[in-house]
What does this fold into?
Amino acid sequence: VNQLSVSDEKAPKEGDAAPDDKEISPEERSLMKKMIRDHLANVKGDVNVQQKDPNSPLYSVKSFEELRLNEKLLQGVYGMGFNKPSKIQETALPMLLADPPNNMIAQSQSGTGKTAAFVLAMLSRVDKTKPYPQALCLSPTFELANQTGSVLEKMGKFLIEDGLKVAYALRGNRLEKGSKCDAQIIIGTPGSLLDWIMRHRFFDPKKINIFVLDEADVMISQQGHQDQSIRIKKALNPSAQLLLFSATYEASVMNFAQNIVNDAVIIRLRREEESLDNIKQFYVKCDTAESKYEALANLYGSLTIGQTMVFCHTKKAVNWLSEKLSKDGHAVALLTGELEIEQRLAVLNRFRDGKEKVLITTNVAARGIDVEQVTIVINYDIPINHMQQPDFETYLHRIGRTGRFGKKGLAINFVDGTRSRRQVEEISKHFGKEIKLLQVDDLDELE
Ligand code: ADP
It folds into this structure.
């Protein structure tokens, strides 16, 4: 457990302190998701395609060979351990690589293979014998640009050995005054890239034949990025292929998308609905805030059979609880919004790798981060909104991450008074699912 000083010995109560209010920004969240993910997300559901011409036949590929890629590129793809295209790649890749090229807007949750798809498209669209930029990729932040660059350099390894060049238009990274960029591919953030084009004229935007705008949803959350992206797009040749990727599909994102990428094929992979069907839900009755601790400590042995996430309302409670559990000899990991991104990544990596079995966290810190193998979720504090009413959406989101892929999951709600008891009743009623009383000595029921 990280060193955090907790002076008072008493268990914090809800309302004692503000909720974990250090919001994690969309770009940090996105970076974390990328960095902790080392495999494809397991998604059900079908790819939905809206074509420009609904009568034209849809091709999908079951293998990378069918795409007739350059030998060195194919080698790079296999070198990354990819055996076959992911679900979204099956449909997107033939359209991305088609001649004449298609513009595309693609939406699917993180981890479905979008980055790999557009990196492949960029690599296959440049001619390394021509010493000027032909492919542009826009990322919302310095870190995300570097992340994409590392995927590109891995996949394009054999092309790079053969003379292909990649440049980064990022803050602090400038070419010599008056010189020209000789890399075929540029990855950058909107501000720096705009400088490279307009102010320094490091390259001719009219020669770009593929333009990728990644993480459009994160992009629009950043001040000024939207306008800069539009200005860059306007500097390009109208015949350039335009691609836009997003993890979400709100109206604001789609407006921006259609503003930048006109006349596009739209492909979407809908997120699997979170459901409570595979999950057994219980509540544990505790008399006081202190006895919630006793109950958790008693459960600890059972929690470590699988992997458990324990949710508290405030970071103070998270800190208090983890410190007390570790003092009592129980290994736990802790995640709150106040940790630096590197610390958060380290915690999540260790948890994902099973080095820690129990993760104590707040909503804010855990939102949007899927750890797929979680089997038990404990609501140490029932999720509530600022009106002190049960927050059904958060409940579903916390719990819905267990019991995925047909595995049975378990949710345990801690109740320490009439208010939280009533909240659990409302949750049960809202979802039309029973939440049974669990006697802590009666743990056999859990297995
Ligand atoms: P997204 O951009 O949608 O978040 P990524 O392209 O980053 O998804 O892919 C998520 C993870 O899956 C990465 O670790 C990536 O290396 C891996 N991956 C992508 N495509 C494939 C594939 N066809 N086969 C196996 N793994 C893949």
The chain has 16 helices and 15 strands. The longest strand covers residues 279-285. The two ends are 28 Å apart (CA to CA). Residues 37-40, 80, 82, 85-86, 89, 110-116 surround adenosine-5'-diphosphate (CB under 6 Å).
